[in-house]
């Protein structure tokens, strides 16, 4: 599409134009983070492969003027599978706040998260908990945001996915009633081609809510996937969170949620890494139970445990983690993921027919420097 | 004649002594509410804009977080500016808290129980930083004694949370400078009677005719060797706050 083809060129042009017109005295700053980690992948036979992963996230902080804001953020990384270097433009957009409309044009993150670990009615699907959102949230798009009052708004998004010639549409309404944050999301996706596979056009509509019930935080979503094949689906998610102080002053944060949807629709949420065993019985209803426990050892260190389990086939993935803030700018992270389950199960490391083998475990340890 | 003058002089002196004694008695008889109100007159600000730093100290490690705070009577907007948290924003509207995550540019409502948690890993809770109610609206105070802190005489007051009012700490004991009516120390207790935190003021400045604590340290009494220092580096009282500032769209 012509619109799509010239969108980034136009934004890039405007961006450099803006750099030119901003007076030299204006404060332009650069920041970001440099991360390096060692990834160890343990396969089903117990063999370990080790890779070095490095990434540099660079963001240019430009002063906003006349209600106009420009953002530019790029991510450079080594692709440990191909061995080469790659980059991702995360943000390259212009936002202008008109009196009754906030218009954003260019590469921008579009996220409709509401606090759950999985969100089946996000604009771009991808599990935050599994860090699958990294790339999919950033879209070439035009967003119109209309604030109605301090807590209510309507947003319209027209995005131009890389793997489709057609426009992806999104419409979101948001309001707060009696302390509950409520949204209504509608997404219309065009037919897409991903690694040679045609993914048919689809629509989904979902209602989300988040608020408090006594000492508990509660949330949920319910909605419908409209699909021409057998994967039309009523999906829902319910969850809650709670935090508790121990006598010694340490804090534990707990989050638990349950997602019910058709197996065929899970692949887009769990991402390609976990979708290997999804193709069998794709119209089967699946119940996923997710748990998160986070324990603060002290002000700077915490351990966490995330579990995702399929109640249908009893497979499970367990992700323990440790994070320590070593200084103002330096942190250390240790993340692991271990898969449990029989062959052909959702999270099991075993082989399914015609599907590449999945690792038994991943251990990643690395440092991040922010500047 | 001389004798008469001496008598007048004596009576005059006695009357002066009586007068000043009465003033002193009147001052000494200030009620707890009057003292806290005078403290609120100093420290309670209807609206302000401030640049501040939070220095979290635990063991041998120190982490500094910088922020901009904009607050009015009921609402607050906080934006972090240090490299690690740059762009992270919080909006507090009465008892509700929203957080803006700069990477994905998403706004998420934070569960109510998180308001009592340490803000960004510090010993100050979200409520400590963003609570904007007058103390007399939240607690019933009474004077329990007088004490001295670093050479300054203080009223020591005990505040118990009013019934039906949501507060972070059930009981607080405050040391209020008798001369400047500014809090110099505070102990914060749970309903069980256990001490949770202690705040000490390191520096007070007179700004626009008010005594304001610009450097304070909060110690988490449940943990060892840990405290958070909160420094106000710049403050502007009653700034112009445009309509729609304390709104979700201003986080984006």
Oligomer: heterodimer
Beta-strand content bin of chain B: over 45%
Number of strands of chain A: 20
Q: For this structure, what is the CATH class of chain B? A: Mainly Beta
* Helix content, binned percent of chain A: under 10%
Low-confidence segments of chain B: none
Rg of chain A, nearest Å: 22 Å
β-strand percent of chain A reads: over 45%
**CATH topological fold name of chain B:** outer membrane lipoprotein receptor (LolB), chain A
Distance between the termini of chain A: 39 Å
Tally of contiguous helical segments of chain B:
4
CATH class of chain A: Mainly Beta
CATH architecture of chain A: Beta Barrel
Strand arrangement within the widest β-sheet of chain B reads 6-5-4-3-2-1-13-12-11-10-9-8-7
For this structure, what is the CATH homologous superfamily of chain B?
Answer: Lipoprotein localisation LolA/LolB/LppX
Summarize this structure as a short list of keywords or feature phrases.
heterodimer, A: 371 residues, mainly beta, Porin, 18-stranded antiparallel beta barrel, two-stranded antiparallel sheet, 3 helices, B: 252 residues, alpha+beta, outer membrane lipoprotein receptor (LolB), chain A, 13-stranded antiparallel sheet, 4 helices, 46% strand
């Amino acid at each position: 599409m012509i619109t799509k083809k010239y969108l980034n060129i136009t934004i890039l042009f405007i961006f450099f134009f803006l750099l030119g017109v901003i007076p030299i005295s204006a404060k332009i700053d650069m920041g970001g983070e440099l991360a390096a980690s060692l990834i160890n992948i343990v396969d089903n036979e117990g063999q370990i492969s080790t890779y070095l992963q490095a990434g540099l996230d660079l963001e240019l902080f430009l002063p906003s003027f006349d209600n106009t804001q420009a953002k530019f953020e790029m991510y450079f990384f080594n692709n440990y599978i191909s061995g080469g270097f790659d980059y991702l433009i995360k943000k390259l957009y212009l936002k202008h706040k008109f009196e009754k409309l906030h218009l954003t044009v260019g590469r921008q993150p579009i996220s409709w998260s509401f606090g759950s670990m999985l969100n089946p009615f996000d604009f771009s699907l991808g599990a935050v908990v599994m860090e699958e959102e990294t790339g999919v949230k950033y879209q070439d798009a035009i967003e119109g945001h209309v604030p109605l009052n301090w807590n209510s708004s309507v947003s319209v998004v027209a995005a131009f996915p890389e793997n489709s010639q057609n426009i992806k549409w999104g419409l979101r309404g948001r309001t707060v009633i009696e302390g509950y944050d409520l949204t209504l999301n509608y997404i219309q996706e065009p037919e897409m081609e991903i690694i040679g596979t045609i993914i048919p056009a689809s629509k989904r509509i979902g209602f989300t809510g988040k608020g408090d019930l006594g000492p508990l935080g509660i949330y949920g979503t319910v909605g419908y996937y409209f699909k021409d094949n057998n994967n039309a689906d009523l999906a829902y998610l319910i969850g809650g969170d709670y935090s508790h102080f121990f006598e010694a002053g340490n804090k534990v944060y707990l989050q638990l949620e349950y997602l019910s949807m058709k197996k065929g629709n899970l692949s887009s949420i769990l991402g390609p890494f976990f979708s290997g065993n999804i193709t069998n019985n794709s119209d089967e209803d699946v119940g996923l139970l997710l748990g998160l426990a986070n324990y603060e050892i002290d002000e700077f260190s915490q351990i966490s445990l995330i579990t995702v389990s399929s109640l249908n086939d009893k497979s499970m993935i367990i992700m323990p983690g440790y994070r320590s803030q070593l200084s103002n700018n330096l942190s250390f992270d240790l993340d692991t993921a271990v898969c449990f389950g029989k062959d052909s199960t959702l999270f099991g490391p075993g082989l399914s027919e015609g599907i590449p083998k999945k690792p038994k475990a991943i251990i990643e340890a690395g440092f991040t420097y922010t500047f | 004649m001389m004798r008469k003058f001496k008598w007048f002089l004596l009576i005059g002196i006695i009357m002066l002594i009586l007068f000043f004694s009465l003033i002193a008695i009147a001052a000494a008889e200030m009620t707890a509410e009057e003292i806290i109100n005078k403290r609120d007159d100093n420290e309670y600000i209807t609206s302000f804009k401030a640049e501040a730093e939070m220095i979290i100290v635990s063991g041998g490690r120190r982490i500094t977080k910088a922020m901009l705070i904009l607050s009015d009577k009921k609402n607050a907007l906080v934006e972090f500016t240090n490299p690690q948290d740059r762009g992270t924003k919080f909006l507090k509207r009465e008892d509700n808290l929203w957080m803006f995550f700069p990477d994905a540019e998403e706004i998420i409502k934070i569960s109510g129980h998180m308001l009592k948690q340490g803000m960004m890993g510090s010993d100050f809770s979200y409520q400590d930083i963003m609570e904007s109610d007058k103390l007399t609206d939240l607690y019933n105070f009474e004077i329990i004694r007088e004490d001295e802190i670093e050479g300054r005489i203080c009223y020591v007051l005990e505040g118990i949370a009013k019934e039906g009012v949501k507060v972070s700490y059930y009981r607080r004991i405050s040391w209020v400078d008798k001369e400047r009516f500014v809090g110099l120390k505070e102990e914060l207790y749970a309903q069980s009677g256990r001490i949770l935190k202690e705040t000490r003021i390191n520096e007070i400045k007179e700004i626009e005719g008010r005594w304001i604590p610009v450097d304070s340290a909060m110690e988490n009494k449940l943990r060892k060797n840990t405290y958070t220092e909160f420094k106000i580096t710049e403050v502007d009282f009653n700034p112009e706050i445009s309509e729609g500032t304390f709104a979700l769209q201003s986080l984006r």
